[in-house]
């Protein structure tokens, strides 16, 4: 699998994602600077967590307009896989790769803790390593993870089986219909607020996220 | 401020407004050989402020031990450095941001975190962990909720954006902090021992470079504010609080680290308190050179800034560097890549003078040496704190119900879970935090190695108030114990010494006493002080805080797989108490929260016993004999057992041993140098303890859903957890006032 992690100036989970990819695939991903406007030939692009350009305005809004994002969109349009985690999910929504938007957490506070989730889709390259309805625990760390879309969009996502993960009676941010992660229509773009790269090493308190990286390596190899 | 403040004549009133005494002003004049202009007066006033010059504390700080074979750099630089083997160094410091945080809690706390991270990355380290030590007033005081939520959000807001995990800390509530909260922030970074950067300027003619945010009018006189008492009008000082921009600091961090990988930097210093003034003067003084600045070159956020304002601004996220000649372009390109302002603002000279030019005119010209060396140092009068009479047994009776007392302690504001706080901090980013907040010490892996750093912040202010010497010993000892309890070897500390007005002899006596106790503990435990900060004048309308010498300790665990936590691991293991229990209830949490009294002396700290007991416990952990460990502190044995049970979600059944100590004193007494461990090998543990002369008793066994102390109490772990977890969220959800 050929993969890359996009590095925005305020990314801070880029290294964590690279470590998890390296461990799963045996080789380090390319680290691609946000100012580039081209991507090398890749199977997977990771939009990592962090505060891309400070996120003092609407989260992810500036990143969605960065030079590299146009290349990421072209990569997705070619059917390339995009793994959009936390701030990456926020950018992916702003860039139109995924529907909806991430609003301030309902409690108005930053939240960092493990959350209980349920796997709802097992057909994507990200989620093929799970059983349907499997209960997993993965950490969140965000101030703006409150997923919102209009009712018609939510119905469509559910109808097409594009809700990848749902909080399992443990919604940390007020997301509509407990949505923790969604897929694009072709299931090649996954956006999720929880951080699977923080749950891929037993020393960090759990390995429920490791299956995502393993499954990507197997599916996209 | 008029366009040319230097045309203003210096009057005694202006001198007083700058916090200088008439005697200090005479020293200014003799250092200059003439009257200063206003800019020069401003420079002297910040350099000689308590905050920058340590004029009341210096003579005492010198008595602290600062050396050990593993110390690379002790106090005097931006942060202290220890050698952790394999070419790795840990760089750390703790600093206060008390006064600004009381006035504007979010920005005050945020910029405190930003400032301490700059101190660490200035030296070439990537920050890998933040910690904090917080003190607030009474929980029901009208300002407390607003201050707690603001400070916590500010600490999180800055650290989370920087992508540096906030891995732990400590919080106390006490009415003594109603008018002066304490926000002490600590940062730990990692560097290679052969790539450490210092602040001594060198190379006459070398360029002086300014990087980071532009200079604005914010924070002018912050250092002076931090060197005076508060009164009812203090909140009018809000404009002197700086505003933080963590994204810019993240860019500054990455750009500085990238430049540090080259050989372009001669010296580097962050602009913290007293901004451009303090950084320039310290670099010049350490290098024994002169320094000339062209203020027209300083990047400015606002127009028409005077020399006075530029020199005294405390705008955040700025650094000053001296570069090797010819390296300007290399550096400029790196900062351009990260979109960080870069400007050559001056050069080093052989004049030994600090010279400021603006509009082609000299607006300040001060000899460097006297600015630093002639700073006043006071041996302020002090009174030793009177010893407390021992607490009579009759004054500390048993509670009506032991179980109820335990529930009140684990649900009380000083004993309850701090989860509401630390869940607002990203404590996992960088994916190396292997022991989270809530344990004895946080553990952060040295990335890519088997090693981990153990970090803890500690002090028990009520002990320090009752007996400063014993309190000083205890603060260091507890920190050492917390690091030991996860299996690590304690290496060194940073300190943040928070006290009231040093001009009052009883306050100075608290300071002197705490230092004395700290010194003894640091010596016996081989736990030297390698950096720190002093915050005095934490008083409002003449009422001081409790003496609060916060200790931030760092330890090393060479093989992180040997660590233990405090959670009971599984049913059927033996629970062993190590150390001597005498049932000391003076100044205990039990006395304060259950009996609502605050009498007697604090528990005595026998440092030799601390050392012996801790070394034995660490051996038990590393050999795998101890499967979990917890040190005994606030609330004694009962609270420690409850915390281990709650952490593990597993009960225990114990019996108190035969002894002369009353059951409630055995359960709630706060005798020092004690640990609880669990083991499947009690015989070996007991033999090890006996061989080292450490008292050890098997109390019982883990298992079940309840914590039972025979004849005293039975409580379900679920009920303990419920009361422990509920207190803070429920309180904070109450209506915030003010």
CATH class of chain A: Alpha Beta
Instruction: Kindly report the spatial arrangement of strands forming the biggest sheet of chain A.
Output: 2-1-3-4-11-10-9-6-7
Q: How many independent structural domains of chain A? A: 1
Rounded average pLDDT of chain A: 97
Which percent range describes the beta-strand content of chain B?
15-25%
Radius of gyration from the alpha-carbon trace of chain B, in angstroms? 26 Å
CATH superfamily of chain A: Class I glutamine amidotransferase (GATase) domain
Radius of gyration of chain A: 15 Å
> Structural class given helices, strands, pairing of chain B?
alpha+beta
Biggest interface, residues from each chain: A-B, 31 and 31 residues
- Assembly of the depicted chains: heterodimer
Task: Please outline the major beta sheet of chain A.
Answer: 9 strands, mixed
Report low-confidence residues of chain B grouped into runs of 5 or more.
none
Which structural class do you get from the secondary structure elements of chain A?
alpha/beta
């Amino acid at each position: 699998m050929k993969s890359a992690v996009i590095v925005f100036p305020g990314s801070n989970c880029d290294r964590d994602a690279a470590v998890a990819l390296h461990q799963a695939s045996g080789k380090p991903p390319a680290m691609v600077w946000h100012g580039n406007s081209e991507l090398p030939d890749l199977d997977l692009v990771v939009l990592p967590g962090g505060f891309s350009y400070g996120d003092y305005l609407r989260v992810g809004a500036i990143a969605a307009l960065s030079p590299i994002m146009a290349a990421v969109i072209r990569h997705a349009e070619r059917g390339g896989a995009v793994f959009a985690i936390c701030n990456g999910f926020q950018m992916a929504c702003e860039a139109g790769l995924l529907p909806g938007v991430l609003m301030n957490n309902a409690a108005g506070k930053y939240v960092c803790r493990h959350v209980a989730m349920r796997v709802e889709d097992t057909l994507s390259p990200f989620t093929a390593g799970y059983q349907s309805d499997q209960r997993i625990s993965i950490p969140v760390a965000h101030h703006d993870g409150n997923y919102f879309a209009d009712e018609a969009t939510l119905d469509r996502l559910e109808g097409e089986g594009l809700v990848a993960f749902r909080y399992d009676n443990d919604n940390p941010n007020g997301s509509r219909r407990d949505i923790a992660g969604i897929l694009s229509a072709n299931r090649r773009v996954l956006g999720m607020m929880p951080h699977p790269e923080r749950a891929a090493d037993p020393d960090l308190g759990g390995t429920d996220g490791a299956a995502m990286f393993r499954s990507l390596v197997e599916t996209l190899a | 401020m008029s366009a040319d403040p230097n045309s203003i004549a210096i009057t005694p009133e202006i001198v007083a407004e700058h916090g200088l005494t008439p005697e200090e002003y005479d020293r200014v004049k003799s250092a200059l050989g003439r009257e200063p202009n206003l800019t020069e007066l401003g420079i002297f006033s910040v350099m000689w402020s308590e905050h920058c010059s340590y004029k009341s504390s210096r003579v005492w700080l010198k008595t602290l031990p600062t050396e050990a074979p593993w110390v690379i750099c002790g106090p005097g630089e931006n942060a202290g450095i220890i050698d952790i083997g394999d070419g790795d160094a840990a760089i750390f410091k703790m600093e206060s941001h008390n006064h600004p945080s009381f006035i504007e809690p979010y920005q005050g706390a945020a910029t405190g975190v930003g400032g301490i991270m700059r101190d660490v990355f200035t030296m070439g380290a990537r920050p890998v962990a933040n910690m904090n030590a917080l003190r607030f007033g009474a929980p029901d005081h009208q300002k407390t909720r607003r201050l707690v939520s603001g400070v916590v959000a500010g600490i999180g807001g800055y650290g989370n954006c920087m992508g540096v995990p906030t891995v732990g800390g400590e919080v106390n509530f006490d009415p003594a902090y109603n008018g002066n909260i304490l926000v002490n922030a600590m940062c730990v970074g990692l560097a290679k021992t052969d790539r450490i950067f210092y602040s001594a300027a060198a190379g006459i003619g070398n360029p002086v470079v300014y990087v980071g945010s532009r200079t604005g009018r914010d924070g002018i006189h912050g250092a002076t504010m931090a060197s005076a008492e508060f009164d009812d009008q203090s909140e009018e000082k809000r404009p002197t609080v700086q505003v933080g921009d963590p994204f810019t600091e993240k860019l500054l961090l990455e750009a500085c680290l990238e430049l540090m990988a080259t050989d372009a930097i001669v010296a580097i210093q962050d602009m913290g308190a007293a901004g451009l003034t303090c950084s320039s003067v310290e670099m010049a003084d350490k290098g024994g050179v002169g320094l000339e600045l062209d203020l027209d070159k300083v990047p400015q956020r606002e127009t028409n800034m005077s020399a006075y304002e530029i020199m005294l601004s405390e705008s955040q996220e700025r650094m000053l560097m001296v570069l090797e000649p010819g390296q300007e372009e290399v550096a400029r390109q790196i900062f351009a890549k990260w979109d960080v302002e870069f400007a050559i603002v001056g050069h080093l000279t052989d004049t030994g003078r600090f010279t400021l030019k603006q509009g082609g005119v000299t607006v300040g010209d001060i000899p460097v040496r006297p600015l630093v060396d002639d700073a006043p140092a006071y041996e302020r009068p002090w009174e030793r704190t009177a010893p407390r009479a021992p607490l009579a047994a009759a004054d500390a009776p048993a509670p009506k119900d032991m179980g109820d007392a335990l529930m009140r302690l684990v649900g009380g504001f000083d004993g309850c879970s701090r989860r509401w706080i630390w869940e607002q901090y990203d404590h996992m980013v960088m994916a190396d935090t292997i022991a989270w907040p809530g344990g004895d010490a946080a553990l952060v892996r040295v990335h890519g190695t088997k090693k981990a750093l153990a970090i803890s912040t500690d002090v028990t202010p009520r002990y320090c108030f009752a007996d400063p010497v014993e309190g000083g010993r205890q603060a260091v000892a507890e920190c050492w114990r917390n690091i030991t309890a996860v299996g690590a070897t304690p290496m060194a500390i940073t300190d943040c010494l928070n006290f009231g007005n040093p001009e009052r002899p009883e306050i100075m006596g608290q300071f002197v006493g705490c230092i004395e106790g700290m010194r003894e503990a640091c010596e016996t435990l081989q736990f030297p002080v390698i950096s720190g900060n002093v915050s005095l004048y934490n008083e409002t309308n003449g009422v001081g805080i409790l003496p609060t010498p916060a200790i931030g300790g760092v330890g090393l665990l060479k093989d992180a797989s040997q660590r233990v936590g405090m959670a009971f691991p599984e049913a059927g293991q033996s629970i062993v108490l190590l150390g001597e229990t005498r049932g000391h209830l003076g100044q205990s949490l039990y006395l304060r929260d259950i009996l609502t009294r605050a009498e007697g002396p604090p528990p005595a700290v026998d440092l030799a016993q601390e050392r012996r007991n801790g070394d034995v416990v660490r051996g038990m952990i590393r050999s795998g004999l101890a499967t979990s460990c917890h040190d005994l502190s606030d609330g004694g044995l009962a609270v420690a057992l409850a915390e281990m049970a709650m952490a593990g979600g597993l009960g225990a059944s114990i019996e108190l041993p035969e002894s002369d100590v009353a059951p409630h004193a055995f359960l709630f007494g706060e005798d020092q140098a004690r640990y609880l461990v669990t083991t499947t090998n009690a015989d070996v543990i007991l033999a090890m303890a006996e061989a080292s002369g450490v008292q050890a008793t098997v109390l019982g066994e883990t298992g079940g859903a309840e914590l039972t102390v025979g004849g005293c109490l039975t409580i379900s772990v679920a009920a303990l957890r419920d009361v422990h977890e509920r207190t803070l969220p429920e309180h904070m959800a109450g209506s915030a006032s003010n």
